[in-house]
Design a protein that fits this description.
Order of helices and strands: EEEHHHHH
Radius of gyration: 24 Å
Strand order of the largest sheet: 1-2-3
């Protein structure tokens, strides 16, 4: 028996494994793109709650690019929200100079709210 055969119609090669020919299938190569916290959270959400969407991106070789874009969008949204909320609530550098503890408390509150908004709008949808 031949160790490897190719189907003329489909072009798929098969390798002999024991008594059976199994197709030589592999995922398309994806470029390595660094993915931040937001992208990783979204990946975990997709993997656990939307298997078909996750697998679709994975099989098409577009998962890394998609997660990197989600990460960039989420980070931009977070930064914008923090700036806007701080401005609305009067959390300024002057407050930071006068009362650091109050500034830290208020900024932590703003960051927590911004994180919740980003999670609700982009990450866990």
């Amino acid at each position: 028996m031949k160790k490897q055969i190719t189907d003329a119609k489909t072009g798929i090669t098969y390798t002999l494994q024991g008594d059976y020919y199994l197709p030589d299938l592999s995922l398309p190569a994806e470029e390595e793109i660094p993915i931040g916290v937001w992208g990783q959270r979204h990946a975990a959400f997709l993997k656990n709650h939307q298997h078909s969407v996750y697998n679709e991106f994975l099989v098409r070789g577009k998962l890394q690019r998609y997660l990197a874009q989600i990460d960039r969008d989420a980070q931009e949204m977070f930064d914008l929200l923090v700036r806007q909320l701080a401005e609305q609530e009067g959390v300024t550098q002057t407050l930071k100079a006068k009362n650091q503890m109050e500034w830290v408390q208020r900024m932590n509150s703003i960051r927590n709210r911004a994180t919740e908004i980003v999670n609700h709008e982009l990450i866990y949808v």
